[in-house]
Fold these 3 entries.
Entry 1:
Amino acid sequence: MRWMTLYARSRQVPRSLFVALASVALACLLWAVFSDDPTVSDRLMTTSVMLGAAVLGLTLGTVDEELNRPAAHHWPRRRALHLLLALGVLVALALATRLGPAHFEPFPVVLRNVVGLLGLTALGAVVLGPDLSWLGAAVWTLIGVLPFSGPSPDVLTQAATWTVQTSGTTAATVCAAVLAVAGATAYTFYGCPERAA
Amino acid sequence: MRTVRAADIAPQTYRWSIEARNLTVKAGRHQAVNGLDLSLGIGVHGLLGANGAGKTTLMRCLATVIQPAGGELSLLGAEVSRGSRLRGIRRDLGYLPQAFGYYPRFTVREFVEYVAWLKETPAQDIPGAVQRAVERVGLEAKADAKMKSLSGGMLRRAGIAQAIVNDPAVLLLDEPTVGLDPEQRLDFRDLLRTLGVESCLLVSTHLVEDVAAACTDVVMIHEGRTAWTGTPEELAAAGADSAPGDSPTERGYATVLGRYREQAVR
């Protein structure tokens, strides 16, 4: 699979995979050292997931969009596959934490955050380009991990701080699902913006 | 060895490789190409025009990087707006952008190979096609050097190599001679003449002497419209003695453009 190697290298996929892995490992390590609770706090988990989504977001575009865009193959299919693989990597990393002393749990919350933040990153890649694709996810994560954010009965607050709501909070789940669908659809059909040199 | 495929000897079923009718293309909000008509067949066509005449926007549209805003555009006999035909067109398209990005740690060979893959060249043909493209631009000594180590002229030649790797039927070169030294430019003109025997080349340039030396036709555009078409000889003959320029072709360029501007004002 020669083309896959070239594709991955031109988008610096190895570097991004390494940083995503390091981000999750560091979160678990810190938690294991400083806490007796085996479940990593939702704030730290979310920040770690956001970092993972952000570095994988960098691989959504390329430095030579001008040469890549008129490619003969079916780009939408490849873009969707790329996004699915990124999702798979993040979910696998989150599940892998269960093998260590500090876990990313509960799974529905982890999955919601992974899906939502990756969708938001994909949306960022379409609107702002790959280099700034992390911006939206970073800002929204920041809002969630602020000291005064947390589980709330108010629906608007639930949506605004969806990353730190408990499992089964409808507004948070809907928010993540909307971001995921919007991001995946936009990226699949439009890809990153091409810029005239 | 390269085998002859059925597609190589199939008769062509269209008259013009590039055919545009009343084409409009936007660069941002600006209407850079504004009602342009173009019919180009096999041969080397030089695209001349002042800065901002719409050359690069036209090239990007013909390369299917950006969509036309209006009018009709057919490449190799197929309408570009019809998505189902687009992939087939793109396989036979080569494009050298005015400026292109590249992954700096690719070697020249890997860079050209990646583009061959983008053009869906069959896997078994890729190593041979890459080697041939690299040799044609005279970069074989640098084939395994990293892209980031190349000089400006070498980068340009690597860009030309990626554009011709799939033996395109339509080849679009935007400012290909920028950064080439005089000797390389002569080699490049030879390459143009060879490629122009069996494919349709559109070469955008500011260098009038390149057009005079290597092109079979000249298309001059001004403010997004076709201002003049003809042969380089006709262009040279059109030059008034009083027009600015140091060669007959340069005087022809100045005269024709000046005349078109006057008409446009009226």
Entry 2:
Amino acid sequence: MGILFYGIGILGAPGPGGTYLLGIPSLVAVAVSGLPARFLWRQLRPLILFLVIILILEALLIPGAELVTLGPLVVSREGLYQGLTAAGRVLFLLVAAFLLTATTSPLDLARGLESLLKPGRKLKLPVEEFSLMLTLALRFVPTLLEEAERISKAQAARGFTLEGRNLLKKGMSLLPLVVPLFVSTLRRAEDLAQALEARGYRPGSVRTSLKTLEMRWPDYIFLLSTLLLATTAFIWR
Amino acid sequence: MEVLLKGVNFNYQLGGQELAALKDIDLVIHPGELLAITGEGGSGKSTLAQVIAGLLKPTGGQVYWDGQPLWSPKGKRLITWQGKVGLALQQPEDQLFAETVGEDVAFGPRNLGLPPEEVEKRVKEALKKVGLSEEICGCSPFILSGGQKRRVALAGILALDPDILILDEPTAGLDPGGRRQVIHIIREFHGRRGKTVILISHNMAEVSVLAQRIIVLHRGRIVLSGTPADVFVRGGQLEEWGLLPPPLTRVLLELNRKGADLNLAAFTLKEVEEELWSWLSGRKRCPHLACGGGENSFRAGPLPAWR
């Protein structure tokens, strides 16, 4: 929830000054979280090129007072200003999102989402089912990746390569990979359904969880401060 | 075809950490040999199989196929795929994908670029080798039983006519009948000239009846290599490496623990029987075994499928 407010705040922040000012708390949070800086760097490294491209495009394409002229290319003051803002927004959003996923397990996230959606139950929305679905989907991502690698190895031993001149052929050449993956996924789903039932899962019933999420005072402070940041950003604008 | 591994290391990348799966492996696999690679779960058996087959690039050392290095220093594969090494991973039935059995078995030979008649011939031969009739060709592979699926998958690999057949736990999860058939397929393949089999298994009973040479892996290292007799002599030590010696060796070990003096190098039914008889006739009467019925009890039927 906090990250949502933070995101709104960042996007609403006026100009580069405001954006980078708002970025500071996220960096503080990273420092407090105790995650190694190298880890963060490795996650962000591939995105730097993207950020630089945003900056350059904005700087070149937005017309305004000339700052530097390189032949036909004109870097405008407004463009630079806009570019810095956009790149900063994306950067800090990414940092914040990265922080969330690095410190919170997908299971906790799904559970949090479930409690957020709780009001939806009054509207007869299948909230629990939705959150279970989400949890299971997250749970099986690594399993599926592993499975895909295993099958592609098995097919590679029979001479399977991703080749083909046109798109159709390329698609067809994926079949030896995709079909077994589907088969095993369906089988796995069936097994899982039975395992769930065997352990007493009934759809629609109220479930308790091992870890219950509780709002404590740091959580309220965090929520409040992010909300405050977002509103000030909007008002200041 | 000869395979040579020199100083091979392999590390898996796991969450930014390196996990050593193979450490400093030196190994020659001679043409025509039936080699078994054993070791407890996580000892690196499957990784080693994939390195031999050229599916995994070792992180250190080099693999040679017939004296030719397989990997360039930059990590490119130097020898293109020619179906020379057939690899059946664990649960090979997971690789089935085509609409019909015939199509699936034909996948490999087609990738070899063979003409259609030759592909068809290969498919028929391969299905015959695994003991399936040609009628099955038109069936969907997904309606078959577990044992049949596995045999279809093996046929898909045999259809490549590889020089080396690598099988990773080929009998795991099969019923006794299925096991017998797979063992028969291995024997039949190995019986042909110059064909090498590498069997990966922790089932020592199976290994003891098939292998000419056994390699024991423990935590990514080769800790023991030799003939079955060489390996089973170390009886008790196998248990330290997380392996269960074959049932007959366990009988001998148990008797030795009770004070007998039996030679553990005996591992076939016949050898063990002889060993027991010579031991029994050397002593007057053994106090622990209520003898008399000895002859019958040691002439049991086929080996139970110990796991």
Entry 3:
Amino acid sequence: MAFLKSILISALIAGFVAGAALTGLQTLKVYPLIFAAEEIENAGGATAAHDHGDAKHHSGDATSDQGAVHSHDDEAWMPADGAERLLYSLLSNVLLGIALGLILAAIFALRHVATWRQGVVWGLAGFIAVNLAPALGLPPELPGMPAGALLARQTWWLSTALFTAGGIAMVFLCHGVIWRVAGVAVIALPHIYGAPHPVNLESAVPATLAADFTAASLATNLVFWTILGLLTAEAMARVSRGSESEIA
Amino acid sequence: MAQTGIAKHTDTSQARTAQVMQAGLAALLGLALFIGVALSHPAAVHNAAHDSRHGIAVPCH
């Protein structure tokens, strides 16, 4: 069980720090842009753009009932603006850090990754799989931007992340040209299939704001993954050194 | 000697299987936690994780 324990402890430490760092970085540009977009949305920009009505920015197809839950749903609980909202973002980011840290730590434990440099490389691969590749089809969204059905986009997003991670593993961890070619094909597959897009592309959110947000989101996530990979590897090395010296 | 070798080999391969199982469990736990925070639909979870979801660029609305 020392094996599992080292994975859990490393993921907890690295996830907490990386999630907290991500929250700090997001307060600089990501959150202000989200708030600005929400202001435009709440000012009635959506009605000027098209007939969203009460459904706001949901598409009107069959799966949109899944997407009916969002921050502007008056009946559902939501954190109050200000410190409470920031606190829940911090909590969410820490949990996401731990979640992704668990996956990295599991891989590190099996592959004996124990230096921070290797950790950073793995972190960069995580960034490509989880943020960069899905962003090619579904660019980071601001509230109020037009989008296709939620469930379809979530499915495409998760599939693309998993396919890209699998493809990267096939290219770098398998031996033989066939695996490498197949890996590239697996990475390309979700993009050939195509991401679900909305029919109407009109948006009340200015394009400059959206472009700003895309860059800010990708840059902050890159730093997050670098820290997460680095710290997970470092923590794994220290935890396993510690348990070895306990046995000895 | 040969038998000890085989026994040792079985031991290490069993230990490896146990390690793979534990790592797989941890990775699945991570995936489930990620989906819960980033993609799950309950309104309260969505609202709590709203800015975080936009920040990491998962489909949110």
